[in-house]
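COMPLEX REQUEST
Ligand: manganese (II) ion
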Amino acid sequence: MFHAPIVPRVRKRSRAAEVRVPGREEVKFEDVRLFLVERKMGRSRRSFLTQLARSKGFIVEDLLSDVVTHVVSEDIHASSLWTWLKECDLKNLSNMLVLDISWFTDSMREGRPVPVESTHLIQDALPEGSTPPEGSTPTAEATVSQYACQRRTTTENKNKTFTDAFEVLAESYEMNEIEGPCLAFRRAASVLKSLPWAVQSLGATQDLPCLGESTKAVMKEMLQYGHSFEVEKMLSDERYQTLKLFTSVFGVGPKTADKWYRRGLRSFSDVLADSSIQLNRMQQSGFLHYGDISRAVSKAEARALRNIIDEAVHAITPDAVLALTGGFRRGKEFGHDVDFIVTTPELGKETSLIPRIINRLTKQGILLFTDYQASTFDMSRLPCLRFEAMDHFAKCFLILRLEGSQVEGGLHIAEGDSRGWRAVRVDLVSPPMDRYAFALLGWTGSRQFERDLRRYARMERRMLLDNHALYDKTKKQFLAATTERDIFAHLGLEYIEPWQRNA
Ligand code: UTP
Ligand code: MN
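STATUS: Structure written out below.
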């Protein structure tokens, strides 16, 4: 806490004393009177900065009083700073600018008081005079890890405007296969998602990892003008919009989307009218069910699908294991599909599971599309040194017909849609039981959480992790795991619950 200062009466000083500060420096900016808050800055740094400012012609007051125009603080705890300021009994506090040290350093660099921007302001978070509970103040603790697997990230995102903006830029870099900046924006977004508080000034982010020059520039703009020009420009970019549109179709990846764009195609009707384009089976279904599968799947719909799959697998094998995974396992309210792991305790028996489920769903008349990929998993070919986007387990990408009557609270469909059913994307993956924990961890996501688990394993532990196994390069051996907790323990990581992996 701050020590209550002795507030001096406004000192009457001669004009000469104002103009000539002890130490010979000439006052250049008479309208600006600085006060540097000692807390966090420390006495010696404060005294150094005071000398520096005076040498550049600034007036720096030693004591806080009503003559001060600019309060500069290095403290990022806005609420405790404001609590202290309010206790100082100032009449003029509402007219003072309470500024982050960045304003001071900018001004020193320029040799003049730079214009105050919103990013410089340390805002009073609780202007009504309410006191926040201890420990709930916005802090950029130095303890935020650069690895998503060492952060707890729920579905509650306090910095959505920033993370959405970063996501747009990351995507545009991805479309152009520019990896570095893409990853930088993804990492920055992920860090902001983990914060239990909303970023209100750039100063508040100074101790956070993974926020580089370009991410900060975007944030600065957004804090200042409410939006980023770079992001706005991208959102209205024709190529960006078209590639987004094309890749929103099931079965259309970035390569195909780009090929169509370069052919001059801009809309679905352009694509469908082009006789030289041969859509594959997946893309045909993608267009056929576009309205439904581009629409988010609700939690209730995911539960209904779970019941359907559960009924199917248990009719096939009573001891089958079924687990909901992907975003819904992380507690998301909506998803683009529903992901399941299905397996059997008996090793090897799982290989026939997916084909038999598909058979059953076909007989039920609810299978609208299936793309089955048999297992190519071979333990003797592990560890895999390069991470592959796809794992080697048997899997299938499905489109199922879901009846409204099976969904508690009804389907998540457009108003006025009276079909009584909708199409939903479902993924099934079927690892052998001894690979179950790795597959579950890998398919639970989020993508960023998985990337950082692998990066952490490689960089910090000399281990290789993927959806199949964990390999210790030092011991030259695979590490066994039957639960996700085992894997976290092997990695020396605190266990992170699925609902905390929304990185
Ligand atoms: P999804 O793409 O389904 O993402 O992959 P999600 O987190 O569930 O989000 P939405 O709501 O559907 O959009 C789920 C996880 O499965 C992994 C992905 O990396 C992701 O973490 N996955 C997916 C694999 O490991 N291998 C695959 O072949 C496919
Ligand atoms: Mn999913």
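REMARKS: Residues 326-327, 335, 337, 339 surround manganese (II) ion (ligand 2) (CB under 6 Å). The longest strand covers residues 394-403.
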